[in-house]
Design a protein that fits this description.
Strand content: 15-25%
Largest sheet: 6 strands, antiparallel
Strand order of the largest sheet: 12-11-10-15-14-13
């Protein structure tokens, strides 16, 4: 059976199938359908003609308006007419004459403010133009539809410029819309008549053809017959998918044009057995001859990858054959492979954007680059950085000396240099060339690269023997500075790196270079801030007997901050405990902390009460903010808090005041923890609100816990929870301050705190009655002798007889001055601690001071003698007067330090009230 016979059968089967579905003639229905289609086509054509005509008319109107306006704008003499005192006298007749010649409805000349010089309606001259003139004032031609004095108008506005290019006037020309559409309306009867005639002619022709087809097809409509032949031709020629029909005997019955092209079939192949077709791939011939089911089965044939679908024709009216469809997937697979490669590279770059630079650590950032690239881009990745970069400094010199910051690979036994090693690269190596030039280096075959092998011939041989055969070296460049190089090594794939790989490596390294540079700059800033802060924080607590103290300072993960603490010995064996917090991190916060700590030290030498000291500190911060308010880019101290406490081991009383700082924790000797209510003062620098001092009487062995808010505050934890954790960690009476510090930090702080933390824990001590002696002195000079005798007796009991003479002289002078210049009551106290302290208090607030005494003066030398005999002396004020104190070193504790004051240049000094 040849192809023609089969095609006839195919067409006959299609006709029978259609006839069975339509037992009666559908010619009439086809006639009505075709007439309706013709009507729709005519109406559509008519509508298109109308729209086209209107569009052409509108476009013609715009074009004519622009042409007329531009012609008039460039007309000779227009500039001279505009300069006349009355431009309308010349422009009005000229515009009307031009309007009539050009066939437009108006030509309007106006100044740059839109005031008309001409108009078809003379009464409109001098009025503002109706339309948009701003584009034309900018030098552009502007067309638009507006409702003007003549009705709906299509107008164009053209600028008139002087020789310098400045717009000096505007010209507008246009037509009324009804004149534009009038031509279309005049053409409408002709269009409608032509359409009606065409409709009648098409309808008559359709009727004749339908009647003839009805006779020739015996009632089968023309649409069905046409469909049969169209399907046949489409399958043979138009379908871009191969179609093959094989008979039950294995002969090729039909092969369309696409099948002939894909299978490489010769001419006249139809009718021959598939096994006898020359050029047909044996695997394809076996599939066609087998007749089995196949769904998207990929078969190589004629140098292509063909997707084959094969189904039997028997169930669908066939004669035991098969129908086969064939698609060429060669290019699709190639494009799919390229798309997958591109997608993987985009994914790699995206992951680099979010996965590199997660920390501000130079080495960790280099490791993130290596981790990301292995094994997705390279089998081994090494990152070499200039050694100064690791310290946060700018790289210096050439790329000869670099330290390996990261090394990653698919295996750990590779012969590459390990991480941490300092490498001196030879000038011929890709690393040195890339560092010096700032350009990537591609080495397709390492075994043929003598410059690379010159670095370390023995190690290079081991690397090549290991299987590493190709290298890309890309400089890590940021802000125009090369920080190091990244090396990508290939061993798993036999193909070498290509130029496309170099482009990807450069994009990957560019992202990492920015992150490494940020980390380097942060390292530098962090190092500077740490050095500054270490120089500002106390390195060791001073020796004193009032408390046993332990402290901790932990910087935040974002760097150093402004938290600080201090333990300051005060006269009379007292001690000041300070904790403060400056908002923010970095150099400014550390510098501000140092300024505040220095100020607290200076104010503490005045021996002020806590509330008065905070008041002076508040004034200092306020003045600093005012002084720095006008300095560009410099912030003041605002945002600082402070807690200041003074503990007296003799009276066991502790005076505290706070400026916006969290309340301290008080740990009783039995382990009970409480947070005493202290008056809440404002943060430092706000001013206007006084601070208040609260006093607590503490039992011996009580614990005072001072801290900053970073200890108890966390983003995911309520402050009440933090206080409760602090309470639980402190409720252990057997711990010393050092153990308590460790327990508190373990209980409250995460691995990397978000804010810096300062913690100071002090356990109180008490000076017993055997270390303190005090007397009330009668308010008359005769009482001094009895005081000296009592003091000598107590010093003998303490084993300090060597200090008796100086002490008696000091007490005599101070008590005499108190009686002479002060007021009752006078009280004396001796404290035997690390030094011998003498305190004389009276009810007066006047303070003695050193003065110069002439050689002929009989008095005025007492306080000078006190200053010479005592190591230190000073005055502090109380609520009932003042206390003058001196400190003397204990016998055998060291050389006498002399007084604070230096010897005067001439004469002597004495004491006198202020």
């Amino acid at each position: 059976m040849n192809v023609v016979t089969f095609s006839d059968r195919l067409r006959g089967a299609s006709v029978r199938s259609l006839a069975e579905r339509h037992p009666r003639s559908v010619a009439g229905q086809v006639f009505v359908l075709q007439v309706a289609l013709i009507v729709l086509l005519v109406l559509g054509t008519l509508l298109a003609l109308l729209l086209q005509s209107r569009y052409e008319g509108d476009r013609e109107a715009r074009a004519r308006s622009v042409a007329v306006a531009e012609a008039f704008a460039h007309a000779p003499g227009l500039s001279q007419a505009l300069e006349r005192p009355d431009p309308s006298e010349v422009l009005q007749p000229a515009a009307e004459a031009a309007r009539r010649r050009a066939g437009v409805d108006f030509i309007v000349v106006m100044d740059v403010d839109g005031v008309r010089y001409s108009h078809p309606l003379p009464e409109r001259i001098g009025q503002r133009f109706v339309g948009t003139i701003e584009p034309s004032l900018a030098g552009r031609v502007h067309t638009e539809h507006v409702r003007g004095p003549l009705g709906e108008e299509v107008q164009a506005v053209v600028p008139v410029t002087d020789p310098d290019g400045r717009v000096v006037a505007l010209v507008s020309a246009g037509l009324k819309v009804r004149n534009v559409t009038g031509a279309v309306d005049r053409q409408l009867p002709v269009v409608l008549g032509t359409s009606a005639a065409g409709l009648a002619l098409a309808t008559a022709g359709t009727a004749l053809v339908t009647r003839r087809l009805r006779r020739q097809t015996h009632g089968l409509g023309p649409t069905e017959m046409t469909r049969v032949y169209e399907h046949h031709d489409a399958v043979l020629h138009a379908v871009r998918e191969g179609v093959v029909i094989v008979g039950g005997d294995g002969r090729l019955l039909l092969a369309n044009d696409e099948a002939v092209r894909l299978l490489g079939l010769p001419a006249g192949a139809e009718g021959r057995h598939v096994s006898e077709l020359p050029g047909l791939d044996p695997r394809m011939a076996d599939l066609l001859r087998s007749g089995r089911l196949a769904t998207d089965e990929v078969v190589p044939a004629a140098g292509r990858l063909l997707a084959v679908n094969q189904r039997p024709t028997g169930p669908y009216g066939g004669h035991g054959g098969t129908v086969v469809t064939i698609r060429d997937t060669t290019e699709l697979r190639t494009l799919s492979g390229r798309a997958q490669v591109a997608r993987r590279r985009l994914d790699l770059l995206y992951d680099a954007g979010v996965g590199i630079g997660t920390t501000l650590d130079v080495v960790r950032t280099a490791e993130e680059l290596a981790d990301l690239a292995v094994p997705r881009f390279a089998d081994f990745v090494t990152v070499d950085l200039a050694d100064p970069v690791l310290r946060g400094e700018e790289p210096a010199g050439t790329g000869g000396d670099m330290r390996r910051a990261a090394s990653r690979g698919v295996r750990d036994d590779h012969p590459l240099y390990p991480a941490g090693r300092m490498i001196s690269f030879a000038a011929s190596t890709p690393q040195a060339r890339g560092f010096d030039s700032g350009r990537a280096e591609l080495v397709p075959d390492l075994s043929l690269a003598p410059g690379w092998r010159a670095q370390d011939p023995e190690r290079a041989g081991r690397i090549v023997a290991y299987g590493i055969h190709s290298l890309i070296t890309v400089p890590l460049k940021a802000r125009g500075t090369v920080l190091g190089v990244a090396n990508f090594w290939r061993s798993g794939k036999p193909e070498p790196f290509e130029e496309e790989d170099v482009t990807l490596a450069e994009e990957l390294v560019a992202r990492a270079a920015v992150a490494i540079d940020n980390a380097r700059r942060y390292t530098r800033e962090h190092t500077m801030a740490v050095a500054l802060q270490r120089s500002l924080l106390p390195r060791a607590l001073p020796e004193q007997s009032a408390v046993e103290a332990a402290h901790r300072y932990l910087p935040a993960r974002s760097g150093v901050g402004g938290d600080w603490f201090d333990v300051i010995p005060l006269p009379g064996s007292r001690v000041a405990l300070v904790v403060g917090d400056v908002v923010g991190h970095g150099l400014h916060a550390a510098a501000t902390m140092g300024r505040l700590r220095t100020a607290v030290h200076n104010f503490s030498t005045l021996d002020l009460p806590p509330d008065e000291l905070l008041g002076r500190l508040d004034d200092l911060v306020g003045r600093a903010d005012q002084d720095e308010a006008g300095t560009d880019g410099v912030a003041g101290m605002t945002g600082a808090t402070c807690l200041y406490a003074v503990y007296d081991p003799v009276t066991r009383r502790c005076a505290l005041a706070r400026a916006g700082h969290p309340v301290p924790a008080l740990v009783h000797p039995d382990g009970t923890v409480e947070f005493p209510e202290l008056p809440a003062g404002p943060p430092l620098g706000l001013g206007g609100i006084p601070f208040e001092t609260a006093e607590l009487e503490l039992a011996e062995g009580s614990g005072l816990v001072f801290y900053t808010d970073g200890l108890i505050e966390e983003r995911d934890r309520d402050i009440d929870v933090g206080l409760e954790l602090l309470r639980e960690s402190l409720a252990h009476p057997g711990r010393d301050p050092e153990e308590s510090c460790r327990a508190v930090l373990d209980a409250l702080l995460p691995a990397r705190p978000g804010d810096d933390v300062a913690l100071l824990i002090a356990r109180t001590r008490v000076l017993g009655p055997d270390r303190v002696a005090d007397w009330d002195v009668p308010f008359h000079p005769e009482g001094v002798a009895g005081l000296r005798a009592a003091a000598r007796e107590r010093l003998d009991a303490w084993g300090l007889s060597e200090a008796a003479f100086a002490t008696e002289l000091i007490l005599s002078e101070l008590v005499t001055n108190a009686i002479r210049y002060g007021s009752a009551p006078v009280h004396v106290r001796l404290i035997h601690d690390r030094s011998l302290t003498c305190e004389v208090s009276d009810g007066s607030s006047t303070s003695p001071h050193l003065r110069y005494a002439a050689t002929t003066d009989e008095g005025g030398r007492g306080l000078f003698l006190v200053a010479q005999l005592a190591e230190r002396w000073g005055t502090r004020y109380t609520g009932r007067g003042k206390v003058i104190w001196t400190e003397q070193p204990l016998p055998g504790a060291g050389a006498h330090g002399g007084g604070r004051g230096a010897d005067p240049p001439s004469g002597t000094t004495g004491a006198a009230p202020r």
